[in-house]
Each structure stands twice: as structure tokens, then as C-alpha cells.
Amino acid sequence: MNSQKIVVFIINLPEHPGLLNWQIVSAAQKIRAFSSANLELVVIGNLDNSVLEKAKSYKFEKINVLNIPYTALLINSLFQSLAFFLKTINPQIVLFSESHFDLELAASCSIALNLPLITQVQSIQIKDNILFLSRTILGGKAKQAYKFESASGIFSFKTNAFSEPLEDSLDHDPEIVHVEIEETHSKIKILSIEECENILPIEHARIIVAGGHGLLNSPAQPPNGLSQIEADQWKLNQGLKLLQELANCLGGSVAVSRSLVDSGYAPYELQVGQTGKMVEPEIYIACGISGAIQHTIGMNKSKLIIAINNDENAPIFKIANYGVHADLYEIIPEWIKFRKEK
Hints:
Blueprint: E1 5-12, H1 23-35, E2 38-45, H2 49-57, E3 62-66, H3 70-75, H4 79-89, E4 93-96, H5 100-113, E5 117-121, E6 123-127, E7 130-137, E8 142-148, E9 153-157, E10 175-179, E11 207-211, H6 228-250, E12 253-256, H7 258-262, E13 283-287, H8 293-296, E14 304-309, H9 316-319, E15 322-325, H10 328-341
Parallel strand pairs: 1-2, 1-4, 2-3, 3-10, 4-9, 5-9, 11-12, 11-13, 13-14, 14-15
Antiparallel strand pairs: 6-7, 7-8
Helix pairs in contact: 4-5, 6-10
């Protein structure tokens, strides 16, 4: 049996269901074609039936289950035990997604195995028996390529850089091993945990509904007695609720442009752009966004861009696959109505 191993890390925690990302299996399959290594899965959290069925269909030879509590990931108290586990299975390649927890674990793996760490990989090519990994840098203005004549390293992949692989219906029973991972002393102490609304981070969303300054043009009248700033905030909230309703219908997340964040109307976590999040969803719906270069740098790699704007000269139309010259407050409610009827 081939002793080389490609290990794929999957985080399956109830506290963060959005972290479960099977797209990296496509990357693993491409690299496997180069290295002919065995595929192993490491599940952080629970091995439920849905994860097991996926693992079977993707032909993993072995599943290592690390029943690690959410709090242990928060305080990063697993390094020593995780390092020992990784040295035991001795993988040549370890693959991660791009969530915060994934990147923390990837850094620990890199140190434990003394392997190079490359993050935000977007493409894989094999040419003349040489493996090339590449990613964009400098705000998308340049591409950085890495050359491997013998594949070994820790790699993380940008969300939506690859499609989820097709499942194989053939029967396959991987070996399942439950691994005990002990927590070690950490200088970090958790005082309390507050539950927040379960919103998928925009960098992990397949569909993004984004709003810009045009959200302030809501036809709804704010309550009497509000200051101009309070009235604008009220209008923006109405607009964001509308976008959230559409996002819920489509299974996506809401994002905003920089102008709304700079004005204090929306949190930075939702900002797309050069100084915000760089996203590459399958569908990006820009509502009331003019399309300044600062914003488009952060989303122009989206597979499909739909722009809705009442300014026919808005720059966003130059990069959009489909453009709708109309008031978003007329289009979005009709779209929501159509989706609900379906």
C-alpha cells in the first residue's frame, strides 16, 4: 500500500455549521493524481451520518475523528496533542479551508511537521510531472505561483476556488479511528460565551447579496423626531432587512460596500473590498453599489455578477454578467415574492 498520505481537515462543530467545506476534496483529488497518495480525512468535531456518507462517496481510505470541544479551539490549547497525532500519521500533504479555525490549525500543523504553509491557494496545475499552486496577491493585480517537484506541505484553499466534487455511488467502507486529543495549559481563559445570530461569514458564502449607498434611497418614511443620521440609519436597516430576506431565500449572506461601513451604518465584518473581505462566491448580487475600484477588487472574481442600480452609468455594470437598470426597492421585493412562490 502507498505510504504517502494526503490529509484533509474538516471542521464539523454545531457552533459553526458553516465551516463544513467539502470543496477542498476537489483539490485533494487533483493533488492525488500527481502524488498517488492515500486520502485520509480528519474530522474535528462530530462524525455524523452526513459526514460519513460524504467521506464514503469521496473514497477516503481512513477517517480520523478528533472529538474536540469548541472551547478548545477558541483558546488554542491543542497544539502539543495535535502535533503528536500528526507525527504519528505522518502525512506529506495536509489540506485546510480558509476559516479562522482552519488557519489556526494549519499554522500548528506547519510547525509540528516542519512543512511549508501556503494559504489562499486558488488553482492547481500539473505540468511535466510538476505540481503548481497559485494564488492572487496585491489586490488581485498579480499572481504568485509555487512549484513542487515532490509534493509536501500544508495548504489552505480559498472558499469557492473549487467546486464540490461529484459523489461516487459505489460502496466503500473507510477505516474509522477515534483519536483522543488532550488539552494542554493555555494562558487564555474563557470568561463567557455569548450566542450571536447564526450568519455564514461572507468569505464562505456561495451567494452574496450586497448593498451600497443606494440602500439609503428607501421610499419608506422614517418615524418622526429622528435626526438626519438616525433617519439614514433607519432607512439602511430597512434596506438590509430586505437584502437579508432575499439572501435567506437564496441560501446566501448579506454584505455591504465600504461607504456604509465608513459612515458607521454597517459593521466591518460585512465589508467587501480592498480594505474589507476578498470574496469569490458563485453569485454576487450588487444592489445600489456604484462599483468603485476599491469595491470591485474584492468581488470581481465572482463566478456570476448581477448588478441592480438606477444609475445606468454606474461602473458596476462594466463587470456585471447581468445588469438591471432599476430601483432596487422595486426589483428586490418582486424577486423575493417570486422565490417564495417557487
